[in-house]
Each structure stands twice: as C-alpha cells, then as structure tokens.
Amino acid sequence: MTALLLAFGVGVASALLPFFNVEAYLPVIGLRSDPALTVGLALVAAAGQTLGKVVWYVLGARGTESAWLQKKLDKGKRRETYERWSNRLTQQPLLSTGIMLASSFVGLPPLLVMAVVAGSVRMSMTIFLSTVLVGRFARFWLLLEGASALWHLDLFG
C-alpha cells in the first residue's frame, strides 16, 4: 500500500516539477515490491501524472485569456497559426488523440508542453484525460516490466 501511495505522489510531483523523475523512481520501487503490484504501480503513477498534467492544462487554458498573450498573438500571422492549430485539435478528435497518445507514451512532443497546448486550444478534457492516462499507464507498465526482466537476466552465469 505504501508503494502505491508513493508512486502516486511521485507521479503527481513529476508531472508538476520536471526535475522529479517518475521514470527513475518506478523501476527502483518496482524491483523492491511484490511483482503482483506492477500493474497497480503503473496505474497509480499514471493517475498521479494525469492529475498533475491537468494543472498544466488549466494553466494553458487560463493563459490564453491573458492580455500579454493576446498582444503576442496579434503580431504577424501568429493568431492565424494559433487558430488553425486550435481548430485542428478541437475539430479532429483522431488527430488530437494521436498527438496526445504519442506525447504521453513516447514523450515526443513533451507531455508538459502538450498539456499546456491542449488547455490553450481547449482540447476536449475527455480526450486529454483518457489519452494521458492510457499512454502513461502503458509507458510505466513497460518500464516496470522491462526493469524486472533485466534484473532477472543471468548476465554472468
């Protein structure tokens, strides 16, 4: 139970503050925990990351209302580009789902950046939450399984 709570907490912390690294923490705690907890650890860490990324989403959504950003968007073709991407991500659910899944699973584009972008263009919260949770869960589960497999290899035997 403690390992699950810690994984959730580190997941939230790493989502908010990038210098906390859940990817470095999970294999360590995973190797010290019961192997039956692998799915649970991956799930609670993903839930923590998702919760933390919602904060960045909200900041992105509120940031677009600022006078400073509105002034920046009025320069050149920035507003046109912003509106084009906003329309793409809000009117094409498959595109926004694909981008968010790639970001949450692979890390490219960086998920923190994409969380802010998703909020600023008002991407569907349902798509945002589900893709971040699924992508992060798959990433963390594979990380835990990979660490376990490497740990149990008999490299010198």
UniProtKB/TrEMBL annotation:
Keywords attached to this entry: Membrane, Transmembrane, Transmembrane helix
Positions in coiled-coil regions: none
Highest taxon above the source species: Bacteria
Domain VTT, chain residue ranges per copy: 40-140
One Pfam family in the UniProt entry: VTT_dom
Ranges that cross the membrane: 39-59, 94-117
PANTHER family assigned to the protein according to its UniProt record, in alphabetical order: ALKALINE PHOSPHATASE LIKE PROTEIN
Family note: Belongs to the DedA family.
Name of this protein: VTT domain-containing protein
